[in-house]
Amino acid sequence: MANERIGIRSGTLAAWTAAVTTPGTEFEIRNRELIYVEDLKEILVGDGVNDFAGLSRDRTISGTLDADSLIVQHKVAFNNALPETLTEGQMSWNPDEGTVEIGLNGGAVVLQIGQEQVYYVKNQTGQTILNGTVVMAAGTLGASGRILIAKAVADGTFPSKYIMGITTEDIINGADGYVTAFGKVRGLNTSAFLDGDILYADPAVPGGLTKVHPVAPNLKVSVAIVIKADATNGTLFVRPTFAGNLNELTDVETGTVNDNSVLRYNATNERFEAEILGTAADANLTTSSTDTTAGRVMKVGDFGLGAGFATRLNITDDLNNVSANGLYYGFGASNRPTNINGYLLSVAGPSTFRGQLYLSAENRRLFFRREALGVWQDWSELYHSDNYPSDTGWTTVTSLLNGWTGTVRYIKRAGMVTVTGDAAGSSSLGSTILNLPSTHRPSTVVWFGNKSGTTMQNADVTTGGDIRIGGLNDLTRFTITYPVIT
Fold it and tell me: In the chain, what are the domain boundaries?
């Protein structure tokens, strides 16, 4: 029909004051003509009734607008009454999400603009990766510009930084598909969870999800929160949050980490560094104050050391059987020195060699002994200024034995006996010149030299107290000092 044709011409709005119903000579101008208004920079369509100045510039296009180039000067309004089902390359308003959405490649995924972020990836694992699977980067396919994905392994084999998100569609082997890094993934079976559960990459199931907080060395990556728990229409909101390895902190440099490694700050390097503790740091403690188990760490107070009281010995204990090093105290134990109650220091040596020092609790006496090859010696007492007999003063003897003449003087002071003399005689008269009292006699024979003229003669003091001199008939001078025990 001739009058249904649309003619095109241009001009200003003022030039079009009425509807034109007469055909033009140069253009096919009709009552539904399409004009370009230069001053408005808009295209108007005449309706055959109103002048162009009174025409509404709002137009609804139904069907498909097919244009090589479309320039929108101000805005595009979408019908926001109902959500649309989109396919690849389509756009509409989503009233439920409150944003515009676009159908992505393949038509199975719709992207809500401003509310989701996705990766376009490739699956070359040899199997289909299903919708709702936690995935990790497994390499790249440079020519395609795609990141290769695989089911996420969260048992600590790979660092957490490789985890990308959750697939938002089934991706068959060899195909490209989408992984959601931020936003919703729908149409899942989330019946194992509750609304609001925080989900982690499952260390036990590659690609799986768990609401159980993982423990080290498993990855601790919170991947999503459950929006809707349902067997078929479950929804997750994805937002991976990574707990990286300690060594990825900027002020930490662990290097090679071994058993018993700890962090210690190095002020020179301005960082924390790994350092291996000694074996005592992780050894077991002793279970009692007399625990001698090899490899255990002593506590303060064990064996009477450091604090508290020494280890108590009971009346049924035997000092011969105290094999552990330490400090002890007690009353009535057997094999005490002279049955005195007191305090024991025991020191163990290799094999069957031990030493003991015993301090009396009743007076100021001190004893010691040792064990050699399993045999304990008798206790010996240490003498000091408080338990030595008092000074006896010098005793002078001028009446010597066996015809010897001269003077001998002796004294006992602080447990030591000193004998000095000038004597003349001969061994033919008898070698003994003097017999000392029992309080001044040595416990073993004491040998000494005496000078006769220019010759040194043999002399001794016997355990019986005899001072014996052998030699020439000449003047003999001597001095001897030795300890005594009374």
Answer: 1-77, 116-241, 246-280, 302-382, 395-483
